């Protein structure tokens, strides 16, 4: 079989659907991407890589919709879960930068009433670095409610924190968006989705939307389980693992409905929504922690423009990617590390050794990832609709990121 991305070179059966372009020195990225398809790890996927402003990889392949057989095209967008958090962080940082707001000041100085229930000391930086102690809603939240950011913010403002804010960190799976998003909504007046469209994606020509309109949803990839995970069936179910290693502890937390892990991921509840995260209403709502629909090129372009100073000032970015917290995560159990909204290298944002100083970004549940590196000038976007079982980037993205860094040698 032959691939358009490889210019006629023979590739393994199952990789023929890969299309696009790849600079010769990045051929190992192409090979890893094709191999993911050949091994049945992908349904549909795309990856784009820039070095500086130069696009060196733009590949795509597979099915955008496994039910209809619709092919993945160059401009196919895909829901990318928590990759959204980096966009929300950038919107918040830009809002603060442009308005001269101090994110180190108490949140209650610009969000009246937020200081209720022991939250007087919470700062904007705490909201952006998962230190606010509000990783889960105190009551069940329907998916329909989540379309109203003011209502979500009001719920969180009235809650007591799970730990003393600023003393620990824990992944705010969904609540992050309505906490950090208030920096934008209250200080600028727009929602995160509106701000991203007006100030970032629109002016920079990026194919990404936090709350996608109908014409975009018409061509958005449909999420499904990847073939490899479907073949494993219920391998993750059954008795909780007995080991004391971090992964076993995380799996036990995931199986305990009362754990912070389970509570954080459970609300808003999409279990009764037809199609879940394929539901057009959910995708259009623009949840600011998990609501982005993007092409790989749009996501990579966002990080390219971050590095180039076209989104926020270079000094703002430098400060934002400075690690604020690191170590055991109160929610994920595994080690995590964050700057202001951006993941930094850790067990939950695994990167090659060469990336450990300069890399930052955010993963999305099931496999997607956006990444940039201030030292190497790399910007990368990878989106998938065949969702892996991993909560974070997973092995597919790790292999691709490693191939990018290996190609620099």
TrEMBL record:
Which top-level group of life is the source organism from? Bacteria
- Domain (Beta-lactamase-related) ranges: 33-389
Q: Where is the composition biased (Low complexity)?
A: 233-245
Q: Gene3D superfamilies from the entry?
A: DD-peptidase/beta-lactamase superfamily
User: What InterPro entries does its record include?
Assistant: Beta-lactam-related, Beta-lactam/transpept-like, Beta-lactamase/esterase
In residue numbers, the region (Disordered) covers 223-253
What's one Pfam family here? Beta-lactamase
Query: Entry's PANTHER family?
Result: BETA-LACTAMASE-RELATED, BETA-LACTAMASE-RELATED DOMAIN-CONTAINING PROTEIN
Q: What is this protein called?
A: CubicO group peptidase (Beta-lactamase class C family)
Which organism is this protein's natural source? Nocardiopsis composta
């Amino acid at each position: 079989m032959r691939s358009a991305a490889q210019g006629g070179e023979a590739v393994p059966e199952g990789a023929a659907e890969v299309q696009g372009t790849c600079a010769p020195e990045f051929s190992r990225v192409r090979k890893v991407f094709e191999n993911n398809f050949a091994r049945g790890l992908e349904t549909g996927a795309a990856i784009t890589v820039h070095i500086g402003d130069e696009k060196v990889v733009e590949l795509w392949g597979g099915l955008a919709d496994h039910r209809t057989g619709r092919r993945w095209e160059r401009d196919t967008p895909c829901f990318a879960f928590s990759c959204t958090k980096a966009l929300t962080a950038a919107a918040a940082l830009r809002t603060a930068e442009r308005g001269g707001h101090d994110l180190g000041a108490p949140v209650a100085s610009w969000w009246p009433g937020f200081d209720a229930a022991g939250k007087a000391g919470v700062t904007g930086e705490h909201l952006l670095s998962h230190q606010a102690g509000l990783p889960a809603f105190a009551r069940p939240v329907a998916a329909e409610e989540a379309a109203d950011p003011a209502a979500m913010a009001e719920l969180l403002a009235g809650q007591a924190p799970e730990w003393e804010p600023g003393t620990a960190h824990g992944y705010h799976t969904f609540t992050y968006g309505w906490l950090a998003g208030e920096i934008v909504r209250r200080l600028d007046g727009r929602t995160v989705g509106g701000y991203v469209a007006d100030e970032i994606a629109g002016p920079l020509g990026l194919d990404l939307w936090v709350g996608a309109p109908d014409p975009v949803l018409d061509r958005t990839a449909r999420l499904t389980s990847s073939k490899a995970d479907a073949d494993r069936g219920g391998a993750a179910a059954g008795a909780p693992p007995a080991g004391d290693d971090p992964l076993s502890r995380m799996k036990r937390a995931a199986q305990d409905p009362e754990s912070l892990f389970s509570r954080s991921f459970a609300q808003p509840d999409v279990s009764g929504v037809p199609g879940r995260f394929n539901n057009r209403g959910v995708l259009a709502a623009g949840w600011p922690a998990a609501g982005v629909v993007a092409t790989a090129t749009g996501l990579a372009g966002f990080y390219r423009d971050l590095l180039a100073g076209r989104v926020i000032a270079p000094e703002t970015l430098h400060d934002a990617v400075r690690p604020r917290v690191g170590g055991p995560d109160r929610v994920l159990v595994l080690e995590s590390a964050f700057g202001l909204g951006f993941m930094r290298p850790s067990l939950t944002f695994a990167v090659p050794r060469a990336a450990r100083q300069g890399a930052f970004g955010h993963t999305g549940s099931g496999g997607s990832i956006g990444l940039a590196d201030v030292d190497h000038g790399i910007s990368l976007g990878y989106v998938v609709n065949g969702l892996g079982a991993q909560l974070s980037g997973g092995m597919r993205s790790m292999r691709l990121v490693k191939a990018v860094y290996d190609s620099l040698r």
